[in-house]
Fold these 3 entries.
Entry 1:
Amino acid sequence: MRIYPQISLATPGDSFRADLVQTLTDGLSRWKDALNAGWIEDDQQGCFGTGRWQALVDAGLTGLVTSEDFGGMDLAAAELAEVLEHLGYICEDAGLGFSLATHLCSTCVPLKTFGSDALREELLPDLVSASRVGAHAITEAHSGSDAFAMKTTAVRDGDAYVISGDKCFISNAPIADICVIYARTHPTKGALGGFSAFAVDCDSPGFTIGKPRKKMGLRTAPMADLYLSDVRVPASRLIGREGQGFVMLDAVMRWEILCVFAIQVGEMRRQFEACLAYAKERQQFGARIGSFQAVSHRIADMHMRLQSARSWLARMVAALEGGGQASLEFAGAKLAISEAHVANAMDAVTLHGGTGYMSETGIEAQMRNAMGGLIYSGTSDIQKNRIAAILGL
Ligand SMILES: Cc1cc2nc3c(=O)[nH]c(=O)nc-3n(C[C@H](O)[C@H](O)[C@H](O)COP(=O)(O)OP(=O)(O)OC[C@H]3O[C@@H](n4cnc5c(N)ncnc54)[C@H](O)[C@@H]3O)c2cc1C
């Protein structure tokens, strides 16, 4: 039962396929046990859950954004947000959801939106069936927030491009088959026109995947650095036109923010309901802890942040469906949902006392996982810069 008013993610005029969304969410609920099996142990050991990933594949989620022609479902933004919010609600393995969002947004979205017919036919069916897994590589040691200061180059040589450079913090890299590599293709042009994206086979000669990186949270979502040394990539693997890298990444980031943070809103809802139940049940000093004002106010704060996060999700959906100020909506949503998630996750630990601090409960993992959201897809500072710039500062 929902314990806060549900804000509809469907906007007037869109063609929301309620039956399809219901089928997908019902299917996911049936896979709930498989999606959660062993995740706490894997989180502690930093292992990717192949069984849990297979459950996601079997539930059809690797085909959410790809068109029917290639075996997918081509969900609209509102449909996608509903399904992924439900995934976050039932699946406690935040790393698994993050790997899925990476697979969908890093590779399927740019291929579907910008790829040639031949490239889509070559790669999308395997990405839908997950016989190939996707990743994307933008970040380098010296260019994180300033992404287009990247040094990786792609130089045209006959019917191929030769790519060289090192990338870091690449989600899914240890399990990836295809990585979308962003590289400079023009020596002097800036972000607009100077960069391009390529769908590169991870087993190409000269392509090396580093050892898995250990990290604070999202430990079940594998990550590694990449080293590309004169990797020869057929020109047919250029996604879109040469020089379109910036435009492509801007589009990819919007879908990434929608997908990743729809999952997080679902995680926040599950977390909130567990906290409310605990506040009603746990007794100290002969009373339910929820009867102490410090605790009840904490629950009220969590409730307000959750409501706000879901409102921002709905605004993002409306923006993607074409009805809003997209840049402001995406910067605002990314900032608001990620910050709300961290604040709620800290409150969840506090509210559960010592139990919240123990790894076997999974509650402290929620806090570590949420922290990543302040950094990837543009840090909180960068989102504030964007909002301030839109406001004319
Ligand atoms: C869990 C996770 C998954 C990731 N997955 C991927 C992936 O799949 N592919 C990929 O390419 N990258 C990935 N990244 C990398 C991520 O995109 C970068 O970490 C992020 O862009 C920040 O870059 P940075 O780490 O170099 O920090 P920096 O850019 O060096 O920032 C350091 C600090 O300075 C602040 N700062 C920087 N510039 C400004 C400014 N102009 N104004 C105000 N403050 C500023 C930042 O907010 C931050 O607090 C991932 C990162 C994480 C944590």
Entry 2:
Amino acid sequence: MTLSSRDFPTDQHGWSELLPARQACRSIKGTVRVPWVVVGAGLTGLACSRRLAELHPNNEILLLDARLVGQGASGRNSGFTVGVSHFPGVFKAHEKANFARVNRINQAGLSILDQQINTLAIDCHWDSSGFHHGAADIASVKEQKNFIDYLNAMEIEHSSLDQQAMQSRFGTTLYQAGVHVRPGGLVQPAALVRGLADGLPSNVKLVENCPVLKVQSGDSIKLQLAKGEVIADNLVMATNYEAPKLGFLRRRLIGSTLSGSFTRVLTEQELASLGSHKSWGIISLHGGGATLRLTQDGRICLRNTAEYSGAELLSSAALKSRQAIHRSSFEKRFPQLAHVPFEHAWSGVEGISGNGTNFFGQQGKNIYLAGGYNGSGVSRGTAFGQTLADYASGGQSELITDCLSSATATWLPPRPFLDIGAMFKISARFRGVGLDR
Ligand SMILES: Cc1cc2nc3c(=O)[nH]c(=O)nc-3n(C[C@H](O)[C@H](O)[C@H](O)COP(=O)(O)OP(=O)(O)OC[C@H]3O[C@@H](n4cnc5c(N)ncnc54)[C@H](O)[C@@H]3O)c2cc1C
């Protein structure tokens, strides 16, 4: 089956809308032959293309995206750049090596981003001083203890906070406890990916609004586009939850749709009611809890819904109705700001697997793929993307071994059971969320 451009919708809601409008400046007509083509210009595809360009300076690397850079999940996330993953539940000593492996990948991605943001002078509100994990409800307060046991066992820099410390930092009495973890960062995600795209090496050719409609593999790899075709020696798929549309990872990767809202920019007086920290991020210690930020430009940003909607963005009407859920969560945390309106709402789709694993490696002759980070892909996607370029170019490294060691994905049932199972799996994340939502 051949797709059409309509299979790649987008909308005007998101972090991109806080930035100046972006225009696509290139297109492809006729037949183009290249040694390397990367499909998907999110964090994975951008990191992979940059690295391929460094490894193959005499080759042109073609990078295609169905939409404008910033319209995919990489420009729609909450901007938490994870250095240390939270593995819920009682600390399992026998999993220590696996936890360390995942954190090596996270921290590789974090340091690649830190270095690129600084070298390219990307204005994306980058803060590399870590972020907070919060506990509003009894289940999360228990989880805080588990998390601290894990951080101690892994010798990870952190500080534990009680309710008073949380209140004096953030101006809310909701959180009973919290933890600040140092390795980590916060970013304006759309500004980050735009900056990375605009700073690509000169031998990367980025073409936006250019969906790949069909992939034919064999002795040569042929990609069908709306007005042309690409014949490539090597293909990298960095299309996240949309990989199954082109026949990859079918029944192993699905999309979960999340949504959140931003307030308008707060006044000096409103900001003063929010405690001592000037910008911050709090991830809930409950998997279904809200993620909350005070951005560097003075907005509160809150995301607290997740649902299965066939891996599609929410319609404007659905987004409006989700705003009631964002609103009650916001007012519960900040009654002193109940008069402050939301200015934007947005949704985005994250790629999730049945058992929470990620995908990295070869999918066929000269075809490589990385993706599906289960809501934690800012640093990990960057590391996977860069490392996939090394792997596809015949390299060997500890990071390649780490990425290849991701667990095998469980199979998901065919439709319509898939839709029912996905709905249950995603709604299960809110079980016991209580005040954390
Ligand atoms: C609301 C939300 C909040 C999140 N919060 C966080 C967070 O705080 N921290 C964190 O670490 N992670 C978070 N995530 C997850 C994170 O955003 C993703 O894991 C990460 O962005 C994945 O990057 P990617 O490059 O693999 O995929 P994407 O950013 O989705 O990029 C894939 C690109 O491929 C393109 N594409 C797809 N199919 C085709 C095709 N056929 N032809 C051409 N192009 C194609 C798409 O247009 C897209 O731009 C969040 C996700 C969402 C949705």
Entry 3:
Amino acid sequence: MTVQQSDLKLDGNAIGGLLREIFTMEMTAAIGTCAHCGTLHAVGEVEVYMNAPGVVVRCPSCGEVQMKVVRGHGKYWLDLSGVRCLEFSAG
Ligand SMILES: [Zn+2]
């Protein structure tokens, strides 16, 4: 998946609803550790590029891809390879 300069850039709150479909809890307050630079960011702080049919999430510190989410044909594809650790409250 390539990201063009013209892609619509949003903050992490833009994917709150999408992540809520996948996880059973509110995820925008979750803290992700970037696998590339090790910086911690709340999901609500990341850079989101809406790139139909998928979403690309980039680290606001180093700009590397943290997460890719594609939804289609009744399925989700969730690539979290750029997130070393995701911390969120239990219930
Ligand atoms: Zn980073």
